[in-house]
Amino acid sequence: MSTARQEEFEDRTPVASEIMYHDLFELNPQPMWVYDVETYGILDVNQAAVRHYGFTREEFLGMTILALRPETEIPVMLEAVSIVRKHEQLFSSGIYKHRKKSGALIDVLIQGNIVYVNGRKAELVLATDITSWIASEQERRMSEEKFKAIFDHTTDAIVLCDDNGCCTDLNDASRRMLGYETDELRGVCIKDFMHLPDEIGFDVVWKNFLNGEILNGLMQIRRKDGTLITGSFNSKSNILPGLHMCVITDVTERMEKKRELMASERRFKALVQEGADLIAILDEQGNYQFVSESCYPILGIEPSHLVGKNAFDWIHPDDRETVLALFLKIREHRQIRTEPFRFKDGFGEYRWIVTIATNMTDDPAVGGVVANSRDITDAVEKARDLEISNERYRQQNEQLREIAWTQSHVVRAPLTRLMGLVQLLQSGDTAGMPVEMALELIKSSADELDEVIRKIVSKADKVQNDDE
User: Fold this and answer.
1) pLDDT per residue over 65-96, tens digit each?
2) CA 325, CA 2: separation in Å to the nearest integer?
3) Which helix (H) or strand (E) holds 34?
4) In contact, 127 and 110? CB cutoff 8 Å
5) 101 — phi, psi (to 5°)?
6) Alpha-carbon distance 229 to 352, whole Å?
7) What is the distance between the alpha carbons of residues 155 and 167, in angstroms, rounded to a whole number?
């Protein structure tokens, strides 16, 4: 306020006081003004207000304090001024919204005191822009609210500890995980529920943690009932001076499922990769997408050599059309079974295999036709040998039956004649047949019998040789 204007105050003061007032008002780094509480008109304003609000001094002195408020804030301001009007002396303060000349809204802390100018009541106002402070406070409160929401509602256990490892605060998830009541956890040290190997001391672990050496990992946690769970922890020392935080996730079930998965994978490898059957996955055109490791010991072909190739290129030309026609039916039937067919191995020879194909193209984990093939070459060869052997025995039996028939029919004729001639000679009654003729007939019958016997012996030898 200028010295001339100050002289208009009701209570005149010495010049020294005027100078001091000038310094306190005009040179104050905070915006200040004086307004008439009846008319709201601005009576004086300092340079800090001119700089901060953007109005010139003349513009300030030609307007009321209503111009500094957005319309929504005017009722609040009128209420505050009405209170000032009711008092002779009053120090007031409050936080309000102000508007600069540019239209920008700011938050200000208003501190006012009643003064008198020419006998009229006025108020001296000091305005402090706290827009940034309010924004930072709102951000801080939002951050605190977010942390509180996370702290209270997360399914992970959050433990806050002091420098000695004593729990200063735990969320509800910690209590559920550890199985304690709230009162039981006050002042409890985390070493009471950390399950460490006997050779590792808690003091060493805690010292390393405070030094920032242990930030995350897995640990065994002992619940109140003595059961152990596996926790995955992420920790941070000194989130505030002397305050440390550890977030723990119960991964017991996850670890158990992981172990089961690993066991399942080992079983899969034992059954598929190292089994006696050849297991492959083909697309609907018969191209190999996956081939088990058993391919090499069975066919002498590395699995990688087959992947991307078409299976029908390895099938014997005489069998290919039949197998292909059956394979095309996989679109209509979920599973098909082939008759034995020949498949070329890594040595250029054909092996007899039989295949069961299952359509699993609709299974995202498979996405193809699973072919389970078994090498039956040995069985086919044994069956073939048995068939040959059976045919040989059939032929032998036929020859033996022929020999038996010869013995029972062809041998009988000359033998009967011999026996009749011998009987005639023995009886001496040859019925007029000369003895010489009888002897000639005996010799002829004997020669005929001898020829038959030689043929029988020859056939018998041939049967024996074929059997050998």
Assistant:
1) 999 999 999 999 999 999 999 988 888 889 99
2) 110
3) strand 32-36
4) yes
5) -60, -35
6) 54
7) 19
